[in-house]
From TrEMBL:
Entry protein name: Enkurin-like
Region (Disordered): 32-53
Biased composition range(s): Basic and acidic residues: 37-48
Source organism per UniProt: Priapulus caudatus
Top-level taxon: Eukaryota
Annotated InterPro entries: Enkurin_domain-protein
Amino acid sequence: MIAGRKITDESIYGLIYEPEVVPQKPARYKSMYSSNVKEEKKQHKSEHATMGQAKVPLLSPEKFLAKHSKEFKLPAKKQFNYPDQDTCRPLVPMIDDKPVMGLKSNKNFITTNAVENITSIPKKAVPKVVDTRGGDTHPLDASGLAPKYVKKKL
């Protein structure tokens, strides 16, 4: 054994040099449309492709390019008004505004409110379901506890 290799088959034929066989590469791919592409490129050539950029007359030195001259300028400010501004309630008075003195109403608000509540029609109770010990309520219709045919009118 020499340096970790085991020599087992010694033969005189192992000394003959054999050239390394290199597999031949296939032919390079060539598109069948390449001639069409070349013709289209010639037809649609840009103006400056062969003759250079178009000649543009230069400005005189008196009309030099000033700083920020090509920047976009915003239009003049306009006063903004809300579209429903005329229907809005009046502003809340400032803390240093004095109230108008001498205004007095003869309306008795307590009796008017009592009469309105007595003559009003009471609201119909909405069926609810209580699902926790804390008293959380949810509408009975959405809970699915009451069948739909019970509410059907005859």
